[in-house]
Amino acid sequence: MGKVAFVFPGQGAQFVGMGKDFYDNFSVSREVFEAANESLGTDIKSICFEGTEEELVKTENTQPAILTTSVAILKALEERGINCDYTAGLSLGEYTALVEANALDFNETVNLVKNRGKYMQEAVPEGKGGMAAILGLERSKILEAIKEARNYGVVDIANYNSPEQIVISGEVTPLKVAVSQSKELGAKKAVHLPVSAPFHSSLLEPAGEKLKKDLENVKVNDLEKIVITNVDAKPLRDKEEVKSSLVRQVSNSVLWCDSIIYMLDNGVDTFVEIGPGKSLKGFIKRIAKPLNKEVNVFSVSNLSGFEKVCDFFGKEV
């Protein structure tokens, strides 16, 4: 077996009930939820387990909820002796990767991402911006579509998720123009996403500035794992790069496809997606296939996924 990477999901992966099976079955997972409740001063556990969909999708709840669930599942895996060489996370998931690498303290980070969610939501009034997924159109043609749409306002590439899926983000009118242009240029599908803000666009630079002030009071430790960042698709060289990378991430493209390719090229052949949902598993398979890379990809969002990973690594459940 080659190297192992732990990868963590971002906003959009959440669902009501996430993490409850781990809370009920593992004391280490229970401790994570209790610590989050104490740090936040709110019952994030109840929002995750039995809250309403409306409450969970509020950005300032979603971000700490996903982080907490992902770390709770991670701790259960680590307790079984399952570990990684590389780690990365999609957008918000990068904070979980930094906690996994012991660069950031979980109790501090859960508050940081709550504020991050609030700042991102406040940066653009609701209804003024949005996001859309473009399927089946190469990068150069999407850039062409965006160039035309920028005559009407701000629109940027938010996520390079896989060879077949690129997400764009921006103001409502130019976003619609870019979607229309993408279809004309041959996109198989273009879908407007149910999000409350134009994440990872230049419109969110004010949110990055607010986050920068919060990060000034956060302690960053030496990294114990190789963390691949969203903004550069390369490893963080030392702890001094962490804060600036997180500030840039708010309003820059998430280079997820490039990040996975970097890990594949450096000997990773086993990926474990840890947290709610399983979108990253699909992205990784679609990234590896045209490169003719044989990969093992697991998704651990429930006990069934946990058991499969334990079995693969030869660990008792």
Automatic annotation (TrEMBL):
Family listed: Belongs to the fabD family.
Enzyme class name: transferase
Malonyl-CoA:ACP transacylase (MAT) domain segment(s): 7-303
Gene Ontology molecular function: [acyl-carrier-protein] S-malonyltransferase activity
Annotated catalysed reactions: holo-[ACP] + malonyl-CoA = malonyl-[ACP] + CoA
Pfam families: Acyl_transf_1 (PF00698)
Record's protein name: Malonyl CoA-acyl carrier protein transacylase
GO biological process: fatty acid biosynthetic process
Keywords: Acyltransferase, Transferase
Domain of life per record: Bacteria
A cellular component term, taken from the record's GO annotations: cytosol
Primary gene name: fabD
EC number of the protein: 2.3.1.39
Record bears the keyword DNA-binding: no
